[in-house]
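Structural prep section.
Before we set up the soaks we want a predicted structure of the protein with alpha-D-glucopyranuronic acid in place, mainly to decide which crystallisation condition to try first. Input record follows.
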Amino acid sequence: RWQDRVIADAERADPQARFEFDLQRSPVTHLPASWIGHAPAMRHYQGLVWYQRTFDATALPRGKRAFLRFGSADYAASVYLNGEAVGKHEGAFTPFAFEVTGLIRTGSNRVTVGVDSARTPASVPPPVTDWETYGGITRPVTLVTVPETFIDDAWIRLTDDGRIAATVRLNGPARDLPVRVSISGLSFELRGSARDGVWKGSAPAPRALRRWSPEEPILYDVRIAAGEDVLNDRIGFRTIEVRGHQILLNGNPVFLRGISLHEEELGRDPVRAITPAAARALLSEIKLGLNGNFVRLAHYPHSEVMTRMADELGLIVWSEIPVYWLVDWSAPATLDLARAMLRDNILRDRNRASIALWSVANEPPPGAARTASPRALSGDVRAPDDTRLVTAALLSGRKGKVATIDDPLVADLDVMAINTYQGWYTPDRLADLPGFEWHTPLDKPLIFSEFGADALAGYRDGAADPHKFSEEFQAEYYRQTLAMARKVPFLAGMSPWILKDFRSPRRQHPVYQQGWNRKGLISETGTRKLAFGVLAGEYARIRDRP
Ligand code: GCU
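Run finished without errors. Recording the tokens verbatim:
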């Protein structure tokens, strides 16, 4: 499929030629998108799909290099250019790039990509998830040309002691180039010379610096120059830390008024193509609709379009890798794969002021193996990023009406986080929820990273004891769960499950679900349910309290 030839020409030239594919005469689609949107017949397909396109280019001038960069491909990709294999990648939610300097030619170039959405128990995530697999190339593909020595990574941030620090890494033969970091809006500049391809520098932040916050999401134009290469980024500067039970933003306690979100645009037939408009629509519902300042970008690294939009709108972000449920840690490659995803997620997004938390797991089942690996991942975060907080969404123990946070993983986290569904997945009466107590032996902040109940938008039940899946039940579930949350003295934030109904093959009640998880506070088309107003009211109260 990836050989550099035109099948129709080969067939015309040789009557004995036999091909059982021809990508050049196959149906045309537009990327980024998932194959769920290519054709109705592909709605439930899981497996390998081939893509091919040609593009015109000119041969690279001397001293230039070229890379093919993929924003993501779900789940594994094999990439070929002009008949040559250029690389393979596993993992659906982090970017990857392959150097194609020696392969780009003047005239028509042919790129072929095989994407396979099938996963195994040793995959990250494993095959069973409570969300749809959107197989395919779901984020943009770009051909990047750079100088022979270029800026491969530049991390610019505000440190806890009030300095602007820069770490710049070069890729290429010139290892000791002069480096310059400048922030025009602050008349601020750092200069130095790389040594063996790396340069680190810092200086006191200018007094004029206005720190990023949800209330004032200030971003500055930052220019990084090294040799012939220039990298521009828009970066916000703030500090985030914990003190006892509190999370501090720029030294001040902040309560995270949030909600969880899957990477799925509004609409009846999402294909997981997150444009700036799609991201703005979702995040504005949180910021403006719910009076929120926080979003848990659940279960995997979302598109950089989403994290940049959170920077711009002013929402604090919980970013997560898909170490989800029953990962088979016995396979030696699995931990390496999860570590690579964590590293790639951090390297992609550590200039995003909105991101405050890196999450290394969601509901890992009990057991020694499940603790060792997320514990290793927690330790991995500090090296590439010592400025953010480490967390994981865990389950709690329970004795009667006392919940205990006793997961051994908590010892390695900066912020504890618990998914709790009393009253939805348990027979507890909603009126009993405020009577629940939460205990922890640790002096750390807690986030309720999930709680929620399904409701089919439009299903109303005015009874005193409304049925599950009605909007009234979901609203009352929120009222009672929020009353419980108010009593937890070490609670520093919430990201209830979830802003928007989302596709899940596991949710097939023919009346209420039809393949959708209905815990959204809005339907898939954006209709607000009664519970939306309950949470918005609670967040307005928290925001405005003295
Ligand atoms: C779990 C899980 C989510 C899931 C949710 C639910 O806690 O983390 O991915 O969708 O609960 O049951 O709806």
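Observations: Residues 51 and 113 are 5 Å apart (CA to CA).
Flagged for discussion at group meeting.
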